[in-house]
Every structure is written in structure tokens, then in C-alpha cells.
Design goal:
Elements lengths: L4 H14 L3 H12 L4 H7 L6 H52 L6 H15 L3 E2 L5 E3 H4 L18 E2 L8 E3 L5 H9 L4 E10 L11 E11 L4 H16 L4 E9 L2 E10 L5 E10 L1 H6 L8 E8 H9 L6 H4 L2 H4 L3
Parallel strand pairs: 1-5
Antiparallel strand pairs: 2-4, 3-4, 5-6, 6-10, 7-8, 8-9, 9-10
Helix pairs in contact: 1-2, 1-4, 2-4, 5-10
The structure holds 3,4-dihydroxyphenylalanine.
């Protein structure tokens, strides 16, 4: 059978070009140049030809074979280059994974805020105290001058723990109970901060979380005045936020302080942000802590740590702090 070399070469070139990957190309290669290929068959048939014809046809077949080999080789180079790109892409991802394993992490933005505040207050001579997250109703409410049935207890959406008498054990709704624990555990004077986790039965939204963090401060000494409270808040605000930030106090009500106030921070652009509550420690609270209000006086304040972190970094959704999305947290 006579092989139409022109036509065969054109078809060969097309099928080589169509080979989409290296496996397909090696199949095409076998079909075009292998033992069962048309070129090999034609070569086998050369023996039947006259010597002149054999030489001529043999030469053309060798040329055709070389052409096909050249086309296969250049297509292979192309496909290998493409495969390398794919492989490099895959390996690049692998390397990123390996690198991520080795990279040192850093503290959560709330922990950073917490640590900075501790440093700041320790620098002003305060100690850091802690109390339990599961509290009894006395420390969370009673000792803080919220008698049983006092309407102010409703200000807190309390999560009770099914332990002991009904409503006797709870997840602390604020860090203020640690004030009582500090007074019970030591002798005045006290200059303490009490950072910690608190719990309320709130639905998560941009400004509320059922679990969040507060920082409480308690100072008890002789002749402590409201001026000391105002000055301390001012000093803390400037130290934490920087020059140009100031505070103001607005009259408010808390059962455990008298007088009570809320304190706001003014940004350099003049806008105000509500930060927390404060006041002079109520005589009943000093008594609950085992102190004589005739001899000792003090101030206290408390604010949300998470809120402070949001303000400082211009984050607008509290939930971001708890989502633990690495891409978000790695910014801080
Ligand atoms: N415990 C209060 C709350 O969670 C905040 C607070 C207000 C703390 C006044 C204080 C204070 O120490 O004096 O809403």
C-alpha cells in the first residue's frame, strides 16, 4: 500500500498539536512512529521495491520520520514547560504551608490590650488580681450592694449555673466581684487592677458578645478623693491612647459606688466615646470587704477591654475579635 507522505505528515502534525498533555503526546508518538505505525509499515515494505525506488522512498521516509520526531520533541518541550508551571504552582502552595508552620504567631489583639493595660497600671504602682469566673451571688451582687430583688440586678442578663440553691451560683457578669475578693484577701491600702472574662446572656451582634473582657480597678487608702479618681482616669487615658486624649465624667448610678459616674474619652478630633463606669466605693461595699468606711475610702472603675481594643484599632465589629480568622487577627 502506497503511503501518501504529504497527507500523512499533515495529519501527524495536527495530531501532535492536539495532544493536550504528555501522556496523550506519548500515545500519539507511538501511533506515528511505533512498530504499528504507517511509517514503520511503509519502511517494512521497502524490500519489495526496485533498488532506485527503494533508495528514494527510503530517504523520504527517513525525512518524514525525522520531521515527525522533531514535531513530537518540540510539542513535548511545550507540554513539559506547561506541566512545570502547574507543578511549581502546587509546590509554591506547599512551601507556604510549611512556612506557616514555622512562622511565630503573636498574641491576640485583646491579649495585647490586656497586657498593655497591665504594664501601664503596674507602672503606676498597681498590682494585678484575679477572681473566679464562676461566682456566688454574694460576690457578684450582694456584697456590691445589690440586695436580693434589687432592680439593678436586672441590668445584668445573668447566666446562672445549676449548682446549689437556685440562682446562688452564676457566671460573673462583671469583674467588680473581684474588688470584694481583693479586700477579703489582704490588708489596705489596695491599688489593684482586675482584668478578666465576664459573661452575659446576650445575643452576639456588632457591640455585644455573651463572653467579653473587663478591667476593674480598685484603690482603697486613707483620704482618697474623687479628685484622685478623675486624675487617675486622665493619666491612664493619656498613657494608653496618647497625648490629645482627655476624659470627662458624667453623673450615673451604680449600687456599689456613691457618687457614681460614667467616664468618656475625648479623641483629638473632639468626638466622645463612652468607656466605662466609676465612682467612690460605697461604704456598704467597704464593709462587705471587712473594712471600716470611717477609716478607709476608695474609688473603683471598670470598663470593657474588648471595646478599648476596638477603639484603639478602629475595628467596628466586636464579633471580629472572636471569629479567630487568621487573616483578620494577623493585622494587629
Ligand atoms: N461593673 C460595672 C459594669 O459591668 C462597671 C463598673 C461601674 C465598675 C462602676 C466599677 C464602677 O468599678 O465603679 O457595668
Amino acid at each position: 500500500m502506497e503511503l501518501d507522505l504529504e497527507k500523512h505528515l499533515a495529519e501527524a502534525a495536527a495530531s501532535i498539536e492536539d495532544a493536550a498533555d504528555l501522556d496523550a503526546l506519548s500515545e500519539v508518538d507511538t501511533a506515528l512512529l511505533g512498530k504499528k505505525s504507517a511509517v514503520t509499515a511503509a519502511k517494512r515494505g521497502l524490500g519489495d521495491l526496485e533498488p532506485d525506488q527503494r533508495r528514494e522512498m527510503g530517504g523520504r521516509l527517513n525525512e518524514a520520520r525525522a520531521t515527525i520526531e522533531g514535531l513530537v520533541a518540540s510539542r513535548r518541550t511545550e507540554l513539559e514547560a506547561a506541566a512545570r508551571v502547574v507543578r511549581l504552582e502546587a509546590e509554591r502552595m506547599d512551601l507556604t504551608e510549611a512556612d506557616r508552620g514555622r512562622r511565630l504567631g503573636h498574641r491576640h489583639v485583646v491579649t495585647q490590650t490586656w497586657d498593655r493595660l497591665e504594664d501601664l497600671f503596674v507602672g503606676m504602682g498597681y498590682t494585678v488580681a484575679e477572681g473566679p469566673e464562676i461566682e456566688d451571688e454574694w460576690h457578684n451582687f450582694g456584697a456590691l450592694n445589690f440586695p436580693l430583688g434589687h432592680p439593678a440586678r436586672d441590668m445584668y442578663d445573668t447566666l446562672y449555673v445549676d449548682y446549689g440553691e437556685p440562682q446562688s451560683t452564676l457566671l460573673r457578669t462583671h469583674t467588680s466581684p473581684v474588688q470584694i475578693r481583693v479586700m477579703e484577701a489582704g490588708e489596705p491600702p489596695f491599688y489593684s487592677i482586675m482584668p478578666g472574662r465576664v459573661f452575659r446572656s446576650d445575643t452576639a451582634d456588632a457591640t455585644h458578645m455573651p463572653v467579653f473582657h473587663q478591667l476593674e480597678a480598685l484603690v482603697v487608702d486613707r483620704d482618697i478623693t474623687f479628685g484622685d479618681l478623675a486624675g487617675t482616669l486622665e493619666a491612664f487615658t493619656t498613657a494608653y491612647f496618647g497625648e490629645g486624649f482627655t476624659t470627662r465624667l458624667r453623673p450615673s448610678y451604680f449600687p456599689f459606688t456613691e457618687p457614681s459616674a460614667e467616664f468618656d474619652v475625648q479623641r483629638p478630633d473632639g468626638s466622645w466615646l463612652e468607656l466605662g463606669g466609676c465612682g467612690m466605693v460605697h461604704p456598704e461595699v467597704l464593709r462587705a470587704g471587712g473594712l471600716d468606711p470611717e477609716e478607709w475610702s476608695g474609688f473603683a472603675f471598670g470598663f470593657g477591654l474588648d471595646r478599648l481594643a476596638l477603639m484603639r484599632h478602629g475595628i467596628d465589629d466586636l464579633r471580629e475579635l472572636f471569629r479567630n480568622d487568621h487573616r483578620f487577627l494577623s493585622q494587629f
